[in-house]
Amino acid sequence: MAIVIDGKAIASEVRNEVRINVEKWTSLGHPPPFLAVVLVGDNPASASYVRGKIKASHDAGIDGETYSFDATISEKDLLDFIRKLNDRPNVNGILVQLPLPDHIDASNVIATLDPNKDVDGLHTVNAGRLATDLPGFVPCTPAGIVELLSRSNIPTQGKHAVIIGRSNLVGRPLGSLLLRKDVNATVTICHSRTQNLPDICQQADILIAAIGRAHFVTADMIKPGATVIDVGINRVNDPSKKRGYRLTGDVDYEAVSDIAGYITPVPGGVGPMTIALLLNNTLIAATRNF
Question: In angstroms, rounded to a whole number, what is the distance separating the alpha carbons of residues 90 and 236?
Answer without folding.
Answer: 42
